[in-house]
Amino acid sequence: MMIAMTSVFARNEDCPVREIGEGLVIMAPAGDVTHSLENIGAFIWQQLDGETSLEEVLDAITAEYDVERSVAETDLKVFVGELVAGNIIIQTS
């Protein structure tokens, strides 16, 4: 899946989410798989609100964490691809 930085994603409302400490546990819609998100994963999840582009998410990551922009962009695209594959987020534009 090719992911453009102008893409906008939203959390799948059919996925129950529970906060555990500073992380999140998310149940896939089918109820057969759980996903644990720690630190930066949970941070990214919170940014995926159906209005914020991945470029803006990347800006937030680089402002919050000490990481090279190019590395963060690559990792963000991989992470978003995994969330899409798990039906945890959906693309809105």
CATH class: Mainly Alpha
The number of helices is 3
Query: Which second-level CATH architecture applies?
Result: Orthogonal Bundle
What's the total number of strands?
6
* Low confidence ranges: none
**Radius of gyration from the alpha-carbon trace, in angstroms:** 13 Å
What does the largest sheet look like? 3 strands, antiparallel
* Overall pLDDT: 92
Strand order of the largest sheet: 5-1-6
What characteristic shape results from the CA principal axes? globular
The total domain count is 1
The helix-strand sequence is EEEEHEHHE
Q: Give the proportion of residues in helices.
A: 25-40%
Structural class of the helices, strands and pairings?
Answer: alpha+beta
Distance between the termini: 15 Å
Describe this structure in words.
With 93 residues, the chain is an alpha+beta fold. It has helices spanning 39-47, 54-64, 69-85; strands at 8-11, 17-20, 23-27, 34-37, 49-53, 89-91. The protein has a single domain (8-83), classed as Orthogonal Bundle (Arc Repressor Mutant, subunit A), CATH 1.10.10. The strands form two sheets. The protein has a three-stranded antiparallel sheet. The protein is globular and about 35 Å long. The model has no long low-confidence stretch (mean pLDDT 92).
